[in-house]
Specification:
single chain; 4-stranded antiparallel beta sheet; 9 helices; 10 strands; DNA-binding
Length: about 280
Amino acid sequence: MPELPEVETVRRGLEPVMLDRRIERIEVRRFDLRGRIPKNFADDIAGQKVSRLLRRGKYILAEMENGEGFGLHLGMSGRIKIQPDGTVAESPKQTTHDHVVFTMADKTKIIFNDPRRFGMLFRVGKKWDSEKPFSAMGPEPLGNSFNGPVLEKKLLKKNAPIKTVLLDQNVVAGVGNIYACEALFLAGIHPTKKSSAVRGKKIEALVRAIQKVLNLAIEAGGSTLRDHRKTDGSEGYFQHNFSVYDREGRTCPGCTCDLAKTGGIRRITQAGRSTFYCPRKQK
DNA sequence: CTCCTGTCCTGCCGGC
DNA sequence: TGCCGGCAGGACAGGA
C-alpha cells in the first residue's frame, strides 16, 4: 500500500503526538516482521525524546535526542493508529495485528499494526543517511536534487522498461506501483518503453509528472485501496483521482475514444506487477 | 552486473 | 452460502 504520499501522510499524523515528546515505553508483541525487530529495540529507544521525525522514500525516521533513532517501513499493509489515553477498546479483529505499541509520556498510544507483517522496524545510527537502505537510495522526488539531468543519468544506465525502473528505489525514492503508473500516464510515456530510450523533453515531463502526482496525492491524504489509513483512522481519497491505476477497461480523463473499439485502459504485467496505461495517450 | 521471478504473510474479492 | 484461486500498495534473495 504505502508509497511516498501515504508514508508522508502517516509521518504528518505522527508529528503532533511524537515530535518533541518522550517515549515512555515500547511494547513489542511480535518481533517477526520483515527483518525481525532487534531484541533490544525497546530498551534502546524508550525513555528518550523524539527530536526529529523525517521521511526518506517510503521510510519514516525518528531521530532521538541522542542522535540515534529508528526507521519504520509500513510494508504493504502497515498502519499507524493513534489512541489518546482513555480511548474505547477496539474489537479483537482490529487489534490482532497490533505488533508494536509505543506509549508516550502523556499516555498516548501509538500502535504499529500490520496484518501481512511485511513492515520493518529497525535501529539507525546518527549517520543513518550512510547506512543500508538509505546510502544507495535515489533522490527525494519532491526535493531540490531531483531534476531532469539527474533522472536522465539514471535512466540511461538501464535497459529495463521505464515502469520497472521507476519502482527501483535507487533511481528515485518513494515511487511505487500506483504512482509510477499515474506519472507515466501524465507524462505520456508508454510503460514498456526502454528506460534508456526515454530522452529529452520526455524526461522533463516525467519529472514534473512524478512531482505533480505525488503532491496531489499528499494533499489528498494518500490513496486508500484497502489498508492505508491516516493516523486518525480516516481514509485518503486520492484513489478517486486515479487516471489509469486499477481502471482496466475504463476511460482515462478527457478520453474521446470509443470504448467498444479501444477497450479503454489496459492492464499488463511487468516484473510481476500490474501496470495500467492508456495505449492512445502513452507512446 | 542487470533483470526478472519467486517468496515472505494475511485478507479480500470474484467465480463457480 | 462456501470454498478456492488469484491478487494486493514492497523489498529482497537468488537464478538466468
